UniProtKB/TrEMBL annotation, chains A, B:
Its EC number is 1.6.5.-. It holds the Pfam family Pyr_redox_2. It comes from Thalassobacillus hwangdonensis. Its cofactor is FAD. This is NAD(P)/FAD-dependent oxidoreductase. Keywords: FAD, Flavoprotein, Oxidoreductase. GO terms for molecular function: oxidoreductase activity.
Length: 405, 405
């Protein structure tokens, strides 16, 4: 009997953990497992804002795929997915094609810019190691230039972050820690630098408990972050951002706009003919697409509805990691000839948003957490993932243990 | 009797050491000594190429003026010199005027671009802490952008240095050490990066012994530096450099041109009506100008002729430091009512050019030095200056002791 080919596209949280789970649970003789990814490394998307701010080096955030996967059990192909052809059970990559019996699509997210003028062209997004270290360098380059110009350009020192959701808040928290260091490095007075967070919704951190939101905003404002809440971004140019609040337009001179207010699924999935909503594929209970019994979707590419609220679950690492366990389990069942696939339900254990290196807010179970204890909890969550992904060795190498900073 | 006002313009090697020498030799009741400088710090111009390459942090290169000077003995004014009025014994600064009885001009150098098209607008110069850290960031920013663009731009990875004199050679030596680190940081293959040194003269390091020049070029070529010798730069644009060699024109795509091939005296001196050659004032034997008995010139602002060759001495730190001793001595004589000023003759003790962190070439006395021993000698020279400037404490704080790297 021919061994089935399982092909996993993308080494984000969902794809990577699917591969790791299959590596643990499937025997070498049961299936060929192949993981396809653009880079030779996996990275923790939820740490990228720290790399972008410059408070954590990106080598702490990325993990070489061949350090985690056993090449005897999972074949890793470094290539870029171009298109998926489910009718032909084939994936086109930049350097070749690959055929599958079972496919797992975990191609992650991309920025959703809602057609705001100039946003796509001029704003940065925190979406990869490459884009995160570019943001770090872009900010630093503007600081370095500031004192080299006779006419001082305030646009070099204004940093605008679009969106006060989870990522936006975590990013301005890191910036608030980083900016004083940059001021020292480039002889710039701290009060000259502005960190401005623009949010269209009527509150920061929509969905969080108001007491937590208030704590977060007070804490960040104390560190010099300015909030523009209920403010719609209207236009971004190479050196300005225009927003509208209370029917007033305001223009901020800035060379640095970081967009953290909207994501959608990777457009390759939509372009390959899957039915999507904002690029995400609505899946069956067992994480397969409605159209194809041999195609699973994990992570940000998958759309699942929270029945309590009748709205989609947000794309989070926590859910992607849980889905990967489910998908790996169901693949094992199919490979072994079973038919009884398991349904997936997220178990939201907790959500903690960092506000810089020693501060955070969050909910774990029914308990609200503030300040230092929340920031320790955040690191515990991050460390648990590393343990799950690569065991104790990886935890020791990449874990966050600086709880007393 | 009124105490005379001694005003020193510029805290480079010449001005700073004049102030330090006066602080040691003059009593508080003998004169008011004032040092005027744009920044609150002195810096070692001969280390700036390391800051520009990113191999040494600029805080190692700069020294806070108030850490070296005793404010009870020398008054430090942080201001920018606008113009000098020797007939009125007055100096105009951005924020006020200052009157003097004796003036010491040590305003340093600026780039001489010989009218080459686009050079002034688009090339960087290694001339200050601000310009050096901007070069470091400019190079790094281009590396960071490289992998963020779908179409790869080779101009981001080509670094062209104009001039294979002392500074040009030392800078490419540091770049050769730095580039592999940058390649690792930004996931760029080393062979993709070019470091190109363009020199118009028929040899690199003109004036050096041919055996030393050959050693230097071989050593640098082995580390991946390309030399274009006898090549005239014709034009610089934001993303290219054109040179002509053997009647052939060649264009190099590059965003980074660093000009290290020509200096002239600070143009403020010329604009203030002093008679200059390339911005440098030809001085009498006792370092005073021909026109004014109360104006001394030190460092790169001063032009003195080497009688053996009938050509000007090059502007070096070594000579500036020696001149400062002479000028301080003569000022002491004048303040005390003496008339018998001492003439100045440079004593060239040695010249060592670094080729990166553990390699160098040079001449000390009549002895040629190569490789590691030369690089140790270079650090000994640097450390001796720190000892002279600020004593043992400063040497310990800023000295170079990594001789076994």
């Amino acid at each position: 009997m021919k061994k089935p080919n399982i092909v996993i596209l993308g080494a984000g949280y969902g794809g990577m953990m699917t591969a790791v789970n299959l590596q643990k649970s499937l025997g070498v003789n049961e299936a060929h497992v192949t993981l396809v990814n653009k880079h030779s490394y996996h990275y923790q998307t939820t740490w990228l804002h720290e790399n972008a701010a410059g408070t954590l080096h990106h080598d702490r955030t990325r993990i070489k795929i061949n350090e985690v996967l056993n090449s005897g059990k999972v074949n890793f192909v470094q290539d870029t997915v171009v298109s998926i052809h489910p009718e032909e059970k084939k994936v086109k990559m930049a350097n070749g094609d690959i055929e599958y019996d079972y496919l797992v699509i975990g191609l992650g997210f991309e920025a959703e810019t809602f057609g705001i003028s100039g946003l796509k062209e001029h704003a940065f997004t925190i979406s990869s190691i490459n884009s995160a270290r570019l943001i770090r360098q872009h900010i630093e380059y503007n600081f370095a230039k500031y004192n080299n110009e006779r006419e001082k350009n305030q646009e070099r020192l204004n940093i605008v972050v679009g969106g006060a959701g989870f990522t936006g808040i975590e990013f301005v928290g890191e910036l608030a820690n980083r900016v004083p260091e940059l001021c020292k490095e480039y002889d710039i007075p701290r009060e000259q630098v502005r960190i401005i967070n623009v949010e269209a919704a009527p509150t920061a951190l929509p969905g969080f408990d108001p007491a937590l939101v208030e704590y977060a905003m007070n804490s960040l404002e104390a560190k010099g972050v300015e909030f523009k809440i209920g403010a719609m971004i209207k236009e971004v140019t190479p050196n300005s951002l225009v927003f509208e609040k209370d029917e007033q337009r305001e223009e901020i001179p800035t060379n640095t706009v970081v967009w953290a207010a909207g994501v959608r699924g990777n457009s390759i999935v939509e372009a390959s003919g899957f039915e999507t909503m904002r690029g995400r594929v609505k899946v069956r209970e067992d994480m397969r697409t409605n159209e194809y019994d041999d195609v699973f979707i994990v992570g940000d590419s998958a759309l699942i509805i929270n029945e309590e609220t009748d709205r989609p679950y947000p794309p989070t690492a926590q859910i992607a990691i849980q889905q990967a366990e489910n998908v790996a389990h169901n693949l094992k069942t199919l490979v072994r000839g079973g038919k009884d696939l398991e349904g997936f339900t997220p178990k939201i254990q907790g959500t903690v948003a960092s506000l810089g290196h020693d501060d955070a807010i969050g909910v774990v179970g029914s308990k609200k957490l503030f300040g230092w204890s929340a920031s320790v909890m955040k690191k515990v969550i991050d460390n648990r993932y590393l343990l799950k992904l690569g065991g104790f060795g990886l935890l020791m190498k990449k874990g966050k243990f600086n709880i007393f900073h």
